[in-house]
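Contributing: when you submit paired examples, paste them exactly as shown. First protein:
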Amino acid sequence: MIDNKKEQERAELHRTIWGIANDLRGSVDGWDFKNYVLVMLFYRYISENLTNYINAGEREAGTPDFDYTKLSDEEAEVARDDMVQTKGFFILPSQLFCNVLERADTDENLNETLEAIFRSIESSAQGCESEDDFKGLFDDFDVNSNKLGGTVAKRNERLVKLMNGIVSMQLGDYKDNTIDAFGDAYEFLMGMYASNAGKSGGEYYTPQEVSELLTRLAVVGKTEVNKVYDPACGSGSLLLKAAKVLGKDKVRQGFFGQEINITTYNLCRINMFLHDIDYDKFDIAHEDTLVEPQHWDDEPFEVIVSIIWTKIQCVFNVPIVSITLDRLFVHYQENI
């Protein structure tokens, strides 16, 4: 039976993305456009996530009308250490997506404003446990690129259009949506542009239905696991499906993966945050897994799930679910 609500949500999201694409058509090619949309979507998300978290705490403490977006930066500074400890990052009220958007039309240096904010968000984690999780997250969003326009005015004009497009996405609380809004946007953008960019779409994303099938096969008979690992994690689709299938609290020690492509590595970390996976519950490494595996010293993974392009010999004595180009298989390696 067709899930009408899911299809309606998906169709609305796709219409909005097409609208943004039309606004930027002829200036930003598809491959770069994908990165601009996803990073701006992430910026909106973490702004709203932090705001909602602080507002909820203050209102529970007896201030029903509290609104973090209305605070001065000076007043907000007192919350910095606590938020970095809890969320792994901090954003001042003036840096929030909604407040920057409100001033965007009149900000002649919007590109510099955004660049400074992105650097500030990353630097808020420096020296903290979350530093590696935020380092370089915004690198694929070049606000000064000529691809956005030949002049500062042209770049800013397109940045405003991009922000307006992102705010028009009716995302609500992703937990209340029947689709994975970020994952669906990622997949849709890949479908739009991967072939035109001369890239293999499957190298960068896995269709959500395939991810869910593989994950369900991997956790058959389990109600919880110690942790989940993907040696070629891409944008994190399989790791996050474990959170959906079991419940993120049922993956006790978190989500681990490794990815060689820097752009996809950044998207994977962004994807973790977007799905409310705390910085201390995931460890994504940027290296070639076959040459420089990064998780040898960790406790053995109870479940390993991976999408691979060639069948390789696995040496883990845990259930592994993989997919090759020619067939789907469940592989149990009994001996190291």
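Second protein:
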Amino acid sequence: MLDKIKEAISRIETLSRRKRIIVVSHYDTDGITSAAIFSKALFRWGKQFSLEIVKGLDEAFIRNLGEDSILIFLDLASGSLDSLKDKKTEVFVFDHHEIVQKIPENVFMVNPVLEGTEPLSGAAICYLFAKELSNDNRDLANLAVIGMVGDMHEKNIGKTFGGILKDSESVVKKGLLVYPSTRPLDKTLEYSSNPFIPGVSGSREGVLEVLRGAGIPLEGGRYKSLHELSDEEMGRLITSVMLKNVGRKNQEEMLGNIFLVRLFNRLEDAREVSALINACSRMGYPEVSLGFCLGNKSFKDKAEDIYIDYKQNLVSALRYVEESDKLEGRNYLIINARDKIRDTIIGTVASIVSHSPLYPEGLVIIALAYNGDMIKVSARLSGRNGRNVREVLSQAVLPLGGEVGGHHNAAGCLISKEKESLFLTELQKVLDVEMVKV
């Protein structure tokens, strides 16, 4: 893949002598960190460019992009190749999502899926681009780590990700995946929603019972943070928590690597930072999350205020899901939130529900929310084994002429609001027929 990156640099260098650059990036954590890395690298390279953060791509947006510019897409566009083939300009796509359409001649793709390399996030790909430009860009490695963690690529540290971790000087510790790992443990456990720990999350009494069972006392009037625990203490804590979680499908997912990255001169939990960046964009402030990633102190303060508001919105959304009527089948759950949940957080809601101990392994969860005259659809798989949710959505959307992006366990699409009933009918047909086949 490095050869492809080198070729991309050479092509952009030549083209940029006569054309300006337009960069378009996705608005989630991986997209924002990709944008921060790429824009910083372009600035240091001496290139003039404009940057736009978007929730997704549609034909109208792509059609309106100027053809007198080089078009560069980050963390998206692998599912929009049919729309890009008609652009009368050079297009570069730095992405990691599955490719289901033929790559047009005017599109140059850098995607690990094509190379058969280890799975990487968009931010990691952008970091490799930046580092290939100059070793001075190694200070952007911490953003790549946040992007990898935010896009759930952190389970297996391969050669490339391992190199990025080394460049970033991140601290990696194995343990219980509750966050933030930098705050007192009692507060972290009490407010943990992903993962949700039965009898502990939301229960002060349950938290103290777990800590007593793990033999972790107060020290100086406070509990240690997760990353301060010794290996022995971490082992006892894991045992105590797992006793509360016996038989639950997500036990294995609750253990893994904790990543601490340096931001604003202090160590922060990469998962917490990822959640904060994601929150700003989903609350309508992608410029704040971008400013935060670029190290602007005033944007840091704004981001923290937005994060608090976001968590309150999320609690309200989850309460609505709990209390509302849902379409349920033997192997699926459909949540049609309409205008009761923001379209920007419906994917997060679907993810949290998919990790809930209330639902079995293999359940397909589809959540819908209005977005103007469109509907945002997010699909998630509960657990690791089961249907390919991107294929499920693709089959349901095919009769409607829409486009689907994502992976086996998480996917999404946009459909017209006027086709809501038709989509739900097609979706249930696909889900019910697949169950018959099984």
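If you have annotations for the second protein, write them as plain sentences, like these:
The chain has three domains: 2-168, 172-315, 326-437.
The chain is about 45% helix and 20% strand.
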